[in-house]
């Protein structure tokens, strides 16, 4: 028994026939012992073997150990947030540089495509991060949501362009007069850089324009050309169109409110005659027959009576450059107004020219409300 006398004061020696009794004793004293010596006894209670088992059991006063689960980290979600933030900053700088700065449209399109591509990659990585969050509770859910929000603007611009590309005819200019479009006073010419070269609009493309935009037709107003020209100039100012060249109007200040300047006709001078002298008046006065619509004299007359204004403008939001040509033609007691709008870059303007012309004509109809014909 000297062996047991050297044991620690807080140790206990248990000898029992039943293991269940031993487990109960351990349960009762689990807060009071550090070491347990289990004695294996035979049926005759003879000491046959001693096994020493060390169980590090905490005291009752000590707090229980907190088990913490180590969550993995989703690197895809964090990478998605960084890439999406870069795409958003690139898109914002590109929009500002093109709308208010010197950035040309071909570079604008290229940078927007790069930004949208980065945003698409970010959304893909964010989806991977959300899957990892669902399957293994990985860190990165907030980063994935931020990446999706950051990528919304570049992807929205790309989606709008794709929708316009498939739903609008592949033309870069429109005209309200498909048979006789107004002629440019100065042919627009812009450096396409990396964009494909453009070709002239064909008759088939004009028919496609009529099928896509049947409401874009000439406007006829029951009024004098001076009244219509004044309204046109007001709409031009409100639409932020800068007139760069004019024909048939005061070219000294083409953006002003001056009345049209008619081309002077050559008049023959006759010697002074006596008012009292009355010549012989024929009894029958022949009525001249009307000339054909398309001949040299008719073209000269129209050239003398037409007022043509050519200007340039930018769209309100994206600042896409367009060239605008407005023709005012006086016919009998009515005035005919035609407009021609062309985008400067690309073979497909995504409907920008049609929207510009439609907005101008609606504003002109509202300005001349009451004298509009057909």
Automatic annotation (TrEMBL):
Residue spans crossing the bilayer: 79-96, 108-131, 137-162
Pfam families according to UniProt: DUF1499
Segments of this protein annotated with the region Disordered: 253-280
InterPro entries (UniProt xref): DUF1499
Keywords from the UniProt entry: Membrane, Transmembrane, Transmembrane helix
Ribonucleoprotein in keyword set: no
Domain of life: Bacteria
Protein name: DUF1499 domain-containing protein
């Amino acid at each position: 028994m000297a062996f047991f006398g050297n044991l620690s004061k807080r140790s206990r020696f248990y000898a029992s026939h039943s293991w269940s009794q031993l487990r109960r004793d351990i349960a009762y004293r689990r807060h009071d012992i550090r070491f347990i010596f289990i004695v294996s006894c035979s049926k005759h209670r003879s000491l046959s073997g001693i096994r020493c088992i060390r169980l590090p059991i905490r005291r009752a006063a000590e707090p229980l150990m907190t088990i913490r689960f180590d969550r993995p980290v989703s690197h895809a979600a964090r990478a998605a947030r960084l890439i999406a933030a870069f795409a958003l900053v690139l898109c914002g700088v590109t929009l500002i540089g093109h709308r208010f700065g010197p950035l040309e449209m071909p570079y604008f399109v290229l940078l927007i495509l790069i930004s949208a591509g980065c945003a698409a990659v970010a959304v893909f990585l964010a989806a991977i991060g959300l899957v990892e969050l669902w399957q293994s509770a990985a860190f990165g859910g907030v980063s994935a949501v931020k990446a999706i929000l950051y990528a919304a603007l570049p992807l929205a611009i790309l989606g709008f362009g794709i929708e316009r590309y498939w739903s609008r005819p592949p033309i870069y200019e429109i005209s309200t007069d498909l048979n006789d479009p107004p002629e440019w006073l100065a042919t627009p010419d812009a450096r396409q850089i990396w964009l494909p070269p453009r070709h002239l609009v064909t008759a088939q493309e004009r028919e496609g324009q009529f099928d896509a935009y049947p409401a874009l037709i000439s406007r006829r107003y029951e009024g004098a050309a001076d009244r219509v020209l004044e309204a046109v100039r007001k709409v031009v100012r409100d639409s932020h169109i800068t007139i760069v060249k004019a024909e048939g109007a005061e070219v000294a200040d083409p953006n002003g409110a001056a009345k049209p300047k008619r081309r002077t006709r050559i008049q023959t001078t006759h010697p002074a005659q006596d008012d009292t002298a009355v010549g012989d008046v024929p009894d029958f006065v022949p009525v001249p027959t009307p000339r054909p619509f398309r001949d040299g004299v008719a073209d000269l007359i129209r050239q003398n009576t037409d007022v043509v204004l050519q200007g340039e403008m930018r769209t309100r939001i994206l600042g896409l450059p367009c060239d605008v040509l407005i023709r005012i033609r006086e016919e009998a007691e009515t005035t005919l107004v035609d407009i021609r709008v062309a985008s400067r870059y690309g073979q497909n303007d995504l409907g920008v020219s049609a929207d510009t012309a439609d907005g101008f004509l609606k504003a002109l109809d509202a300005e001349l409300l009451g004298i509009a014909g057909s």
